[in-house]
Amino acid sequence: MRQFPVLMSKENEIPTLSKLPELAEKMDMYVRNWLHYEAEALRLHNKFGDKYILKCMSCGMTINAKMVDAKETVKKRLKIAKEDLEKAREKPVIGKYKCPKCGSTATALVFVPKDETVDQILQLYISQSEKYKKLAFEIVKKLPFYKFWLRYVHGAGESIAILLGFIVLRSFLRHNKFVTQAMWRMAGLVPWAYCPNCKTIVEKKWEKGMKCPKCGAELISVLPTKRFGIKLDFNPTIRARLLVSVETMLQQQKKCLQKNGNCGVYYAAIQTQYASLVEKGKRKLKYLYPGFEKLSEEKQQKILESWVFKSLRVILAKILIEHASRIMAMYYDLPYTMPIRRDNHEIYNPLVDLNKYIETSGNKFIDLEQSKLYLSRMKAYVS
Fold first, then answer.
1. What CA–CA distance (Å, rounded) separates 51 from 109?
2. What is the pLDDT of residue 69?
3. pLDDT, position 329
4. Are residues 107 and 256 in the same domain?
């Protein structure tokens, strides 16, 4: 193992290679319990939390009109006014809104508070979720990729650190080495080869220039989902949570850059791919979205922008996984192969935010010069 002149207590020292399988098993239990209790708390809140109900006296239909802490009504077509939501807390609002089913105005908007027992169970689920999340993070804090790199990246909070730690350790447990492609597949980020003509998945791994063996059409890349009718070889919950966490990271970095802060270097790098992704989206969306070409230009543009942003999330998630696996391999002196270089992919070294990083001797995993370069590029782009 590499030795670095960094003083650490035994509680915070980096684990040896032989301890990683044991940590992988613990991480698996902690992460699964964290996500389980978090999902159960959300389900319980959505079903029994404080909410507004619209009751129809004519047809008997009951609609969950709005959750108290939601940004908008569940049924947008109801368009419930804020003042009516406040009035409903005191007494039902009668006859103001139409029933979406029968059109009758014999309706009542009622506020339904959550039951005290439900609130106790909800708090229990939340506390259990936080408990397992904390246990998982305690393991991640000791891993090389976090100590030497991720903690210096703006917007990369506990959730991203835990999910990267889970993917890295589980992949090592399975392969006994750090293979980036295997980690991408474990996270559901390796695209499938899809035939836009036959409307089927041809292969579970897409490569540029592939042709459909049935019709000869050029295959396009799509992320694996259940709608293609093929059994998934990854945990969709892990991928969904990783992409949501990456999206939060992108938003935080963008806000910091807009305030002229020394952060957002990853966002700067992937922003250079925006134009090429727009062109790619224009070619692919007509196959992925039925009736896309018949939509108005405004709706097409919204769908295109959404698709591009989702693609940026996937690119950044893959970059983060690659950097985490590379640092782990470097630290433990294990063989490592760089991913195939793709068009317009400019980031290949782990970067840090200059206002967070404290220079320490022996940290050979990050690239300060490239960090400064991407920061200057993005500052010029924002201005």
1. 10
2. 57
3. 93
4. no
Spell out a b/e string for 181-218, using b for 16 or more CB atoms within 10 Å of the CB, else e.
bbbbbbbbbbbbbbbbeeeebbeeebeeebebeeeeee
What local confidence, expressed as pLDDT, does residue 332 receive? 93
Span 249-253, average pLDDT? 87
> Does residue 210 fall inside a structural domain?
no
| Secondary-structure breakdown of the chain: helix, strand, coil percentages, each rounded to the nearest 5 | 55, 10, 40
102 and 239 together in one domain? no
30 pLDDT more than 80 = yes
| Residue of 183, 190, 182 lying closest to 165 (CA atoms) | 183
**pLDDT value of position 321:** 94
- Where is pLDDT greater, at 200 or 71? 200
The answer for residues whose C-beta is within 8 angstroms of residue 160's C-beta and 6 or more apart is: 150, 242, 245, 246, 249, 320
> Are residues 283 and 166 part of one domain?
yes
304 located within any domain:
yes
Question: Could you give the residue ranges of the DSSP H alpha helices within 64-143?
Answer: 82-90, 116-140
Q: Which amino acid is at 234?
A: F
